[in-house]
Amino acid sequence: MYLHSFAQCTTRRSSLLTVLQSSATAGSSGGSGSDNTNENLSPTRLEAAVTMDPPTTGMGLRRRLRPKTQLPAPHAGDKPNVKLGVLLLQLGGPERTEDVEGFLYNLFADPDIIRLPGIISGLQKPLAYVISKRRAPKSKAAYASIGGGSPIVKYTAAQAEGVEKVLREDMGLDAKCYVAMRYWHPFTDEALEQMRQDGVNSVVVVPLYPQFSISTSGSSLRVLQDLFFKDAPRWGQISHTVVPAWYDRPGYVQAMGRLISRELSQFTEEQKAEGSLHVLFSAHGVPQRYIEMGDPYQEQIRKCVELISKEYEAPGVTTHLSYQSRVGPIEWLRPYTDDVIEELGATGIKNLVVVPISFVSEHIETLEEIDIEYRELAHENGIKNWRRVPALNTEPGFIEDLAHMVVEALQTPSISVTEACALNNLDIMPMDGRTNGRQDSDNNGKLAVLGLAGGVVLDLCSGRGGLAHLLH
């Protein structure tokens, strides 16, 4: 069984995707000639995930993943009165200054943000309490500089409203979008409770992170997975599928290309006479050790930038990639954005467009770190003509593509939360000191984790360093 009752769906635009139509041979009582096909498909319900590995592991899962076979077309009679819920996952942020300390505590209590070795993992929450108390005054000042709070909740709610409108009005689906924030309201459990009250019985989960990372999509999916397992009798009756990453979707890529092209077109002839145009993609950084352990983030960022750059490529335009918001003494993804800006300035570059590549909504990392800190750094290094591409927010093409993504997720074999975690190597990043069946060849990984933990403490307690810009 999968997401049913979409046989009546039609589109009012020829460019929009249509949902799979009814199959005359499908039926809830079993049917003619479809048994062999179904035997090759993994279930699409949560019951299948419940029989797999515990929420924080998945080493045995890869051997059990289904082949990539198209599901049979759903039949309107299989599951009447389908109510589709689209769950949008995002980090969240404090909307008022009085929310900042609580938000900081939730952020630093997450082991995907500060990963302590198993032997001292019990200190996670006390450490989060100390850091949040220490950082709250300076973080409040940072939020005050961008209007007093994070706009990410507002933008995410607007994105949900836009996607829901397209699904309902253009695609004829009985769908409702819900927002689940990782570190502040509305939390994931609040969104799930609202879906329960609304009678949702089929769910498409869409992390609003184009590229998968253990510290973003992975963290949000861990929470969702744990909530599913805690109440398996309820959520085991709900069909669900996850879209783990979507960095290479044509609609997303084209929307980013349009925004960049618009900024490039704003340079005057006088400014162009000062030198060539440069585009700097600034992605959020992660520790290099995460990549070495299997996090697909860096490779997805590279592929994403390559695709987007083809949308605006022209003579005299050069593209660069860097990573922002590093913290502590260990190695993070390079090159660092501040270093690249200084290097570009040293070579005499005057025209620069900065693109926040891993963010789809405005928040403190775009409005404060890029717009204030990096802009000042650029001017100090002689880059006179600075432009910043806005986040996608509610760009119409982007919103429509998100809706298309939901429909495509309904048409393809489902990916459970457990499968999404395992497919992206989340199972190799244990939360409690276990190795999940893998042995480190040396102590470098442990030293790296200890270094990161120590660096985080020093960095945050001193009030200096890039992790402050994680505060969405």
Quick synopsis:
With 472 residues, this protein is of the alpha/beta class. The chain is 43% helix and 11% strand.
Model description:
The protein has 472 residues and is of the alpha/beta class. The chain has a domain at 250-388: Rossmann fold. 43% of the residues lie in helices and 11% in strands. The chain has 17 helices and 8 strands. The strands form 2 sheets. Strands 2-1-3-4 form a 4-stranded parallel β-sheet, with helices on both faces. A 4-stranded parallel β-sheet has the order 6-5-7-8, sandwiched between helices. Strand 7 (351-356), helix 14 (364-380) and strand 8 (385-388) form a beta-alpha-beta unit. The longest helix is centred in the N-terminal third of the chain and has 21 residues, at 124-144. The two termini are 39 Å apart. Residues 1-79, 431-449 and 462-472 have low confidence and may be disordered.
Distance between the termini: 39 Å
| Helix residue percentage | 40-55%
Figure out the total of helices. Answer: 17
What is the CATH architecture assignment of the domain at 250-388?
Answer: 3-Layer(aba) Sandwich
pLDDT < 50 stretches: 1-79, 431-449, 462-472
- Look up the CATH topology of the domain at 250-388: Rossmann fold
Return Rg in Å: 23 Å
Q: Order of strands in the sheet with the most strands?
A: 2-1-3-4
User: Main beta sheet, described?
Assistant: 4 strands, parallel
Assigned CATH class of the domain at 250-388: Alpha Beta
Question: Strand-residue fraction?
Answer: 5-15%
What is the element string, with H for helices and E for strands? HHEHHHEHEHHEHHEHHEHEHEHHH
- Gross geometry: globular
Strands, count: 8
Task: Report the average pLDDT across residues.
Answer: 79
Structural class: alpha/beta
